[in-house]
Every structure is written in structure tokens, then in C-alpha cells.
Records
---
Amino acid sequence: MPYGRQNISTDDIQAVIEVLRSDYLTQGQAVPEFENAICLKVGARYGVAANSATSALHMACLALGLGVGDVVWTSPNSFVASANCALYCGAKVDFVDINPATYNLDVDLLEQKLKNAKINSKIPKIIIPVHFAGRSCDMKRIYELSLIYGFKIIEDASHAIGGKYLDAYIGSCKYSDITVFSFHPVKIITTGEGGVALTNSSRVAESMRLFRSHGITRESENFTCKHSNDGDWYYEQNFLGYNYRMTDIQAALGISQLKSLEKFIFERENIVQWYNFNISSLDIVLPIISPDVSSANHLYVIRVKQDRSRIFRELKNSGIGVNVHYIPIHLQPYYRKMGFRYGDYPNAENYYEEAISLPIYPGLNLQEMVYIKDRLLESLGS
Ligand SMILES: *Cc1c(COP(=O)(O)O)cnc(C)c1O
């Protein structure tokens, strides 16, 4: 029993087989179809699929003009990719500590940090809020701060496809420049590896498409060189891009998986309700639900007041695939070398000391949930 896993149907398998029998394994019709299907689902104008969310975050930063001398702020309670994307561009990273109740970047602390940054004229170019566990950050307030202080916003919604914020699906980019989803198998829907960057700006979308494929354009209106009349084979590279393309094999799986999104979200919500109702112990803090947020419930994190290592080990030894999300990014040796230290973000550090992610995925059955609950309460002595 892992903490998260994919749920693959016979329709999913059939969709992949069809691509394998077709003419195009990559650069065919499945990728634009997948991009359109996601846009339609979440209410964004443009989608640019990539071979991972990490690549999508990198393309997103590049398209917003991030470079040497710039700064990005994000949450320390995230996967390292949320911060690494800034480093790929030669920019610097800084963090805003989390809210101790939501485990998301704390907007009061953000506002305070922006006030201080303004005095030193070190306003970040981009802020990357992470919708931890699938629960949206307070995007309206972050957006309002962006209007005052002039930063861009990339939502790292790797956990959050299918979640909602104020009646709109996460991904609508109503309060951001770009939103990124991940399709890694532990996430809500999967393409094996994969991600997408959504935006409502045609210029940003076009820029991300160019970065996705070597910085190469085949559109004659973008040509700048005198050889542009050479013939139909002609293409032009005007800046340095990458090969971050998603294959049609992956996209076909994604199109099929997307059809199950509501079902997956419903199942995850039921698991959360069951855990919330059945796991009660004075020694556990359960996740909170905010009224203006409907979580995609990627993770179910409890905080334990007793020795976390012991409880984790006991659950693991009982065959329960617990995990911990996340080791604060600033405590990674690579980030410590940049000068970050223990004590810099106490909320994220205190949270980390107590956190355990319990298994949650579509297909986790009642018998397994009862087993998890019994072993957990046994471990806590309650
Ligand atoms: C999984 C994850 C990523 C990276 O996603 P990949 O598709 O594996 O590259 C980035 N940010 C967060 C918060 C994630 O959980």
C-alpha cells in the first residue's frame, strides 16, 4: 500500500494502444488535443504541455523573462522543483514561510516581506505559490499584492488539478500569469511523466512553445534572417530553447485520464471525509478545510505530537506506505550552501517535524483505511 498511486483503466490502455498503431508517436494531434481538453476543463485560454511539471515551471519562468539578477519567492514546504526552476534561469531564490494551519505560503508574512523588500528595492520578479496537498493558496490576496508591488505569479498547482478556488477551477489563471499541473503517477491524473503550463496570454503561451522546442520557429512572420526565402524546409532559431516536448503516447493517456478527473476527485474527497471522521486522537492534528477552497486532496497529511520517526517506522513496518511532505527546501544541502539555515522558516520546520502523509488514492478501499486507522491509533497508544 503506497501513499499515492495511479489508477489506469482499460480505456486508458486502449487510448495508448491507438497512438502506438498510428503514424505519430510525437508531434501529432494528441498533444494539442490534450492541451485543449485541459483548457476547456479548467477555463484557461492556452495550454502548453511538457514532458514534466519541472520543465513546465522552467518554461514558465523563461516566458516571464526571468534571468540573472532576478529573484523568485516560493514556499519552503514544497518539492524542490518549485525553487529549482528559478535557479535554472540564473535567478536567486528566497522563501516565504508557511501558514501553520493551511501549510501554504502565508500571505501576511508575504505582505510583510514585500514591505521590507520595497525598502531595499529587492522586489521579486516572480512569486510561485504552491497549492499544497491540492488546497489553493489565497490567490486573490496574492494577486492584489502583485498589483501593488509589480511581481508576476506562477501557480505551482502540481497537486491541484480538479481543485477549486472561489468557484473557479484551479488553472483558470484568474489571479496569476501561469498555472502549472504535474502528471507524475502519484499526482491526480497521470501521463507517466508530464506537465502543462496554462495561461490566458497568447504572447506568454507562444513564448513557452518556443522554449519547449529549441527556440525554433517555422512561422514565416517570425523569421529575421535573409535566408528565410530559401524554401519550405526553412526554420529559424532565435534564442536558446530546450526539448521539453510531451509525446503523443503520453498525451493520449492524459486525454483519457482527464475523463476520470471528477471521479478521482470524488473518491479522494470520500477518503478525506472518512479519515477526518474516523481518526480522532488528541495527539493528531487533522488537515483543515477552508470554506472558499475545494481541495483536489492530493495528500492527506496528519501532524503527530508524539515521536514522528517511531510512528512513521511502525506504520511502514505494518506495510503502510506513509511518506513525509516536505523536507523544507531551504534545509537541503544544496540550498544551505546558498546561505539558508535551520531557523530561517520556523513554521515550515515545525510542521515538517510532525508531518506524516497517509495513503490516499482512488482505489484505496475501506478495509485498507480501517487497517491504516487501527495501526495508527495503536502506534499512538490511543
Ligand atoms: C511533483 C511536483 C513537481 C514536479 O512535477 P514533475 O512532473 O515530477 O516534474 C513540482 N512541484 C510540486 C509541488 C510537485 O509536487
---
Amino acid sequence: MNIKSDLDSFGYFGGQPVFSTVRSISNLVRPDIERFLDYSKLMFDSGIYSGSGSLVRRFETRMAAFHETEHCVAFCGGFWGIVLAIKYLALPGKTEVVMPSLTYRRLGDIVAWTGLTPRFCEVDPSGLCITRETASVCINDNTALILGVHPIVNCCDAEGLEELSAECGVPLLFDAVESVYETVNGRKVGSFGRAECFSMQSSKLFNAFEGGYVTTNDGELAQSLRLMRNHGAGQPGDPETVGMNANPIEVHAAMALAAMDDVERQVVANRRRYRAYQDALGNLQQVRLVAFDENEKCGYKNIVVELLDSWPISREFTLQLLHRENMLCRPYYAPPLHQKQTGYQMLWDDLSLTERLAQRYLLLPCGHFVSEDDVRSVVSFLSSICHHGQALAAYERSKS
Ligand SMILES: *Cc1c(COP(=O)(O)O)cnc(C)c1O
């Protein structure tokens, strides 16, 4: 292990950074370029570049099979897929969407675009996710929808949320972006609730540069999403709706198909990195690696650690130190959504657990461009922080 000898050797204090180029937490999967070009040539030959050309259709068929659902509808991005699915599913006349606050930083905005109001629920401290119990106390006469969001390691209790949805008659939609490869009790993520939403933005497990899709077994929902994404156009004679363009494009589908051809290899590489983190972090008692539930299928994409009470410095200072070593680590969903300044209404009661959890977790470098040696270097640096913990803590105190 390569422990920094003194504080002056930390990048933060002017020393040589651990990495000369940035290591990030984004997956940035790079599939075989020849495959991407082969698919792209099909697009050129067909002369159809946007809307539903043959590559988008092929991609949708493939993803429906992958998720074991009847339908898959692709979009220009994950964001708009979720907006339109909420638009379709929300109970008419109701105003609130029950969702976690400790989640993806744009999810409140997504709900605001639909004209509805986020009602934030607590999370479960071990899974870091919405549960049947935390959601149920937020259901009231105004509830339009439950937005179940899978956390970034493992899945939420999708079956429990389905039971709650059935009991209270409120539709259930999943943001399953971070659980694209996973199973819940052996069942593929994709067919839970009324629909599930995914992203293929370049930092996700399946990289299509940009893009997203929704899976569902509800044919009417799929049909409506296809109309909504395409300028809101209906059948001739249908009343006009507010139009928009959320169409997928063929070149994204070409990249997505190339990425899907490569995905098993990516997951194997992700698992190797995860094992390297498990091994290296085994010796560091101040940090806990959030473990994948290997009884289920896992994509092993995200590496999340909890800084335990014995960790010497704050999570914020930790991040500053990491950044100056060229490790672009991120806090695990901080600030939580209810603590952000936004231009729209948000509702919540007590979220003290969310607020506490939002101080403790961070994501470590992972993905295609991070080697197992890199993993060991990251953990060595965390050990360096512990090794110089007293001095770093004193410095942090002196600054505040
Ligand atoms: C990235 C992400 C989205 C949005 O997807 P885009 O394709 O980037 O619009 C939504 N939810 C979660 C949990 C995400 O991580």
C-alpha cells in the first residue's frame, strides 16, 4: 500500500496527485466501435435518422425481451420518458407524487415539469430507498402517483410497493435507471408497477450517448407514450394535446445496440472492480462498502461507501481531498432534494433520517476507465486520510 508520507504530499496541500488524469464515477462504457459503425451504416442506408426507424424499433424489441416485458418505448432521454409516463399515469385531479428525497438530483424537476408536486418520503436506512412503509405514511387524498426509485446499489422492495399501490389505488411508476440489470426476487426489473423508466445517458450502465426508454406490459400506455413523444400527435380527429418532441434518434439506437452486445463483458469487468474494492477496503475499518446482494442479478456498476463514525474528517472535506487527487468522487445524493433551492413547490414532513444519511455516503471511481490497480490506489489514499486523520481533523477544525 502506498500511504502518503505527510500532509504536504496530499494534492490538496500542493503535493503530487495520486492520478495524473481524472478517474470518475461515470461508467462511460465504450463498446466496440466497429459494431457501432456497422449499426450506424444501417441507419445511413435506410435514410431514416429520427423518429421510429428500424434501429429504434430493433432496440425497443431487444429491450422488451431483455426486461421480459411486452413493450418498450424509447425516448431522446430518460428525463422525458419519466415526465411522459407520469403524465399518463397520474390520477386526474390529484396533485402529489410520493417519492424519496435522497435520490437523483433532477427527479424533483422531472415531477415539476408534469405540473405535479413532489411529496418526499423517508428512506430505509439499510437500503437507502423508499419502502412500502415510508411511502404509505405520505399517501393522502391528493396523491396522484407513487414514484418508486431504486437506489444505486441493489433494488427497493418493488413487490411491497406494488402491494401498497393495489391497496390504496394509487398508480406506481418506477425510476429504475440504476437497476437496469438487476432482479428482485429473481424477477427482472422492468415489469414492476405500471411501468419502469430507464436512461442510456453515457454515465449509465448502457451507454447510448443519450437516450432513455420505458418498459411496460400495458399496451395502451405504450401506445400513448409513442404518440406523446412524437409531437403529442394523436390519431386523425383526436383532440390536440400539448405537443413536444421526445423522439429517440437512430444513432442513439445504433450505440445502444452496440452497448447491449457488450454488456455481459462490462458487467464482468464491473464485478472485478467491485471485488478489488471489497478486498482492499477489507482492511479499512473506518469505511463500509455498500454490498451488492449477490442472491440477485447485479450490474456491479456503482461503488458506494459509508464513512463510519470513526472516519476522521467530514464527508465534504473528504471529497475536496479526493478531487485534488484527480478522483472525481461524488456525494451520495447530497443535498437531498428537499434541501435544494428550487422554483417550485415541494412537500415533506420530518426527513431527519434522510438528512443524516445524506452526510455519510460517497461514490468512488468506477467504470470502464478504472483499472483494478486504480482501485487499490483509491483505497490507499483513503488509508492515507486515516493515517493522517488527526492532523487533517485539526486542519479542518482550524478552517471552520
Ligand atoms: C440519469 C438519471 C435519470 C435521467 O436520465 P437522463 O437520460 O440523463 O435524462 C433519471 N433517474 C435517475 C435515477 C438517473 O440516475
